[in-house]
Write a structure and sequence with these properties.
alpha/beta, 11 helices, four-stranded parallel sheet
């Protein structure tokens, strides 16, 4: 017997729910989940909620709004208060636990009011990473339909492409706090500095990048294939990063490695 395709498996998994609240960050995982949930259950039974805080870049917030309009999602913003938690700001290896706990604080009342289940866009490949946030969400009753349907990251991107979703090849866009080394306190000022530097670099045409924050030094990561392009535009790159508030501008010759700051913990990648 043939194995159902990824979209069919996801539809079958979502069909087990009556009403759901989808944590919608605008990436490919949550995008596929929000789109297929709305298609399967109907917009009246699916609320797609985007968490807004200083760790969300303004461009990502705008992208969520635009995608929701394009796809006909029932959508709203919710404010999360992770910055109010000292356990989050101290930025140890459990930072993501407190972030997702704050997310669940915002989503759980919406779900309770609608007698709905909170859904997160976690895929099978995410399960082996250092992601304490998954445990926080699971403890609070969230479900991971992509995992339940057996979808890998490749399955998710293929399914999104087959459905014609514009996010199918979107680079990962983890929260801004993932640019801050563990042990360095997360603050609104630091997050704003990272956001300004990355926005400036994207305006130069660099789509996939990270600016790692080391006080007055910025370490830029781009895919190895883009290193030459950065060097070709060195004066402009230096100018936009210094304009964000950094004194020193460096380029990591190893290239972009998602979650490489977890090396300080001796763990696998997280989400940054």
């Amino acid at each position: 017997m043939a194995v159902p395709d990824p979209v069919t498996r996801l539809r079958q998994t979502l069909g087990d729910h009556d009403r759901v609240v989808v944590a919608f960050s605008g990436g490919v995982d949550s995008g596929l989940l929000a789109y297929v949930a709305t298609e399967t259950l109907g917009a009246a039974r699916v609320l797609c909620a985007t968490a807004v805080s200083p760790s969300l870049a303004a461009a990502e917030r705008d992208a969520c709004r635009d995608l929701a309009a394009d796809w006909g999602l029932r959508w709203q913003e919710v404010t999360t208060e992770e910055m109010a938690r000292a356990a989050y700001r101290v930025n140890d290896g459990d930072r993501c636990f407190w972030c997702k706990d704050a997310l669940m604080d915002a989503l759980t009342p919406l779900a309770d009011e609608a007698e709905a289940t909170v859904l997160l866009g976690v895929n099978v490949d995410d399960l082996g990473d250092h992601r304490p946030g998954q445990e926080a969400a699971r403890q609070r009753g969230a479900r991971f339909p992509l995992v339940e349907a057996g979808l890998t990251k490749e399955d998710v991107r293929t399914a999104a492409r087959d459905l014609g979703l514009a996010v199918w090849d979107k680079p990962a866009a983890p929260c801004l706090a993932s640019r801050v080394p563990y042990g360095t306190e997360v603050s609104v000022g630091v997050l704003g500095q990272v956001e300004r530097a990355e926005a400036g670099l994207r305006a130069l045409g660099l789509a996939d990048l990270r600016v790692r924050h080391y006080d007055d030094l910025a370490r830029i990561e781009v895919p190895v294939g883009d290193l030459a392009a950065v060097l070709d535009r060195r004066p402009e790159v230096v100018a936009v990063v210094r304009a964000a508030g950094y004194r020193y501008v460096t380029l990591d010759l190893e290239g972009l490695r998602s979650g490489n700051l977890n090396g300080a913990l001796g763990l696998g990648r997280e989400d940054g």
